[in-house]
Write a structure and sequence with these properties.
Keywords: Membrane, Transmembrane, Transmembrane helix. With about 170 residues, the chain is α+β, with helices and mostly antiparallel strands. It contains one helix and eight strands, in the order ββββββββα. The longest helix is centred in the last third of the chain and has 42 residues.
Length: about 170
């Protein structure tokens, strides 16, 4: 009795978990219409599978998806937002094994400055070359007037003293 053995390639694939949640998400450079969001990638090694990151921007009240980013690093600058509005920012990592637990931040853009027409106790003059030129011209004119006044006074006082000297010598 002869046994015939054939060899088949056996592929053993170990289960790899999806990436862990991103960490330490923060917001910086907030303005009226933009902000920068950044996170640290998960600290656990996902068996060296390539990780990609997704950032979703939703309007907080309605949950409407406004923007989404697919990135190699968990960092993005979000622009084109409305002033003074709350947003839900969700960041998660993915790899071939799946998706991480989402990390969500609530972020509010700055409100637009309010302008009023009430009188102010301070003047808000812009420093313009025109103001400098006008100020220099007025200052120069006043200096010339003061010099002329001093010269006239000096000349008149000299005439008076000369007249006293002549009267004293004639008497």
């Amino acid at each position: 009795m002869s046994l015939l053995f054939t060899s088949f390639p056996i592929i053993v694939k170990f289960w790899t978990p999806p990436p862990t949640e991103v960490e330490n998400c923060s917001v910086a450079e907030e303005t009226e219409t933009s902000f920068r969001v950044f996170c640290n990638a998960s600290s656990e090694d996902s068996d060296e599978l390539d990780e990609h990151f997704y950032i979703e921007i939703r309007e907080f009240r309605t949950g409407e998806l406004l923007q989404n980013f697919s990135l190699n690093f968990p960092e993005a600058v979000v622009r084109g937002l409305d002033p003074g509005t709350w947003y839900a920012v969700t960041v998660y990592a993915t790899n071939e094994a799946g998706r991480s637990k989402p990390y969500t931040l609530e972020i509010r853009t700055f409100s637009s400055p309010v302008t009023t027409n009430t009188p102010s106790s301070t003047w808000d003059l812009e420093s313009s070359p025109l103001f400098f030129i006008i100020g220099a011209a007025v200052g120069g004119f006043l200096l010339v007037v003061v010099i002329i006044c001093c010269a006239l006074k000096f000349r008149l006082s000299r005439r008076k003293s000369k007249g006293k000297y002549l009267n004293a010598t004639l008497n």
